[in-house]
Amino acid sequence: MAKLYFRYGAMNCGKSSALIQVDYNYRERNMNTLIIKPATDTKGSERIVSRLGTERRADVVATDKEDLYVIIEKQHQKNDPVHCVLV
Description:
This protein is α/β, with parallel strands linked by helices. Helices cover about 30% and strands about 20% of the residues. The chain has helices at about 15-30, 70-80, and strands at about 35-40, 45-50, 55, 60, 85. Strand 2 and strand 3 (about 55) form a beta hairpin.
């Protein structure tokens, strides 16, 4: 069964660091992740950037006109199954 985890917090509380860490943990176990970044977030261009100096390229930079379900489905069909979607 699919699960949804929603993490939020104030600026500089470590959200980006946590996202990069979750991505790393999945990939370390040979599981596929998909990182989607909203186009309105211009920090780091197409990268997720942490204050700690770690960064990871977003797989998709999505606009508000795009359907996230369609993006995820296309990625799922293109590669091996997507085990985790991080936004």
